[in-house]
Amino acid sequence: MFGNRNGQHESYHRNYHKATILAAVLLLSILSIGAVAGFSAREAQAQAPRQFALDSPVATITGVNLREQPAADGASLTSMPVNARAIVIGGPFNDGWYWLDYNDLRGYTNGKYLVQVDENYTPIPLETPTPLPTDTPVPVFTDTPATTTTVVNTPASVGTPIATQPGASTPAATATPDYTAPTTPGDYTGLWLGELTYGGNVRSGPGLDQKIIKGWWAGRRVLLYQAVTDSKGGVWYRVSEPPEAPMYVHSSLIRRVEPVQFEPARYKGRWVSVNLAQQIVTAYQGGTPVMVTLASTGKAKHETTPGVWKIYWRLPKQEMKNGNLASPDYYDLKDVPWVQYFHISGEALHGTYWHDDFGHPHSHGCVNLSTPIAGWFYGWANVGTIVYVH
């Protein structure tokens, strides 16, 4: 009887110790799982993609695909180059994917490839992007191409700088273009349309010691009004025309696209040509161009109407408003300067302060010009001046 109680007592202690050890192991497991979960949560938070509000403008920090679905295996709709500009219209979805409107094409891109920009599509440096495994970002604000490439001359028939491997004999800072732009302001002989192949600085004069005015992105169109050599032998293009402020971009950042197309003497006296294909507006005196500038005409579904029109109403400033707040085409622009209406639908030549992407369609049918150039046209033209849209 007594012996049986001792056996039961020993069994009780053995079971007790086993239960204690099991409980301790279980507690340690729970604590370990909690620690791992906490670490994972912190890690996920640290790696969380950028957040962008609806209708906010963004730009890409590297070349990336615009996809049909918010997933890496979604079908590619198009390729977006570095500094491509778009509007956020939805998201985030599926771990940071955003629905974008890119040149009227709608698709998805992961937020880690995007950066917030301002209303003029100038990139806002919120942080230094980390190079991605499959893409190498190109610097946005430079005066020469990325340090991993060198630009050399090309045959005159090509006109596009070639990027070569490091160690090439021609340094980018002294590269010279294969094209000599006119040297006299107002001389448009041999004028070319160009495009930035890299994001870069726009300076007030030809030289690295000149003031930086702004930064432009890869793909921004320019007119090559004049080629100027700085004190160190670098060649710069003047990409503005008086009365615009002087603006220069290093030649190594620009490729030629095509010669500017000029018209014969279609009309007597003063008349205006709006070239929809090249996005170029030219003021003519008979058959002589007296002002050539980039413009932004109507985008898809709002194209500027081709035809021969006449300016019928002008005013130096006007509020332009369309639709209501619920309409996708709504806009309300205060004090639009130097307005000259030429089409009964409301299409007009006018100044533009809400974007700086001349050379690409942007408007609801009007012909967007830089404000100084629009002022020049307002002083030069008059009611009855022909506007030839083609």
Structural class: alpha+beta
User: Whole-Å distance between the termini?
Assistant: 115 Å
Largest sheet: 5 strands, antiparallel
* Rounded Rg: 30 Å
Which of globular, elongated, flat, extended, rod-shaped describes the shape? globular
The H-and-E topology, N to C, reads as HEEEEEEEEEEEEEEEEEEEEEEEEEHE
Residue stretches low in confidence (pLDDT < 50, at least 5 long) are 1-9, 30-48, 124-140, 146-176
Alpha plus pi helix count: 2
The portion of residues assigned to helices is: 10-25%
Q: Can you count the beta strands?
A: 26
Work out the strand percent.
25-35%
Order of strands across the biggest sheet? 6-5-4-1-7
Average residue-wise pLDDT? 77
Describe the structure.
The N and C termini lie far apart (115 Å). It is built from 2 helices and 26 strands. Residues 1-9, 30-48, 124-140 and 146-176 have low confidence and may be disordered. The chain is 14% helix and 35% strand. The longest helix has 45 residues, at 2-46. It is of the alpha+beta class. β22 and β23 (331-341) form a beta hairpin.
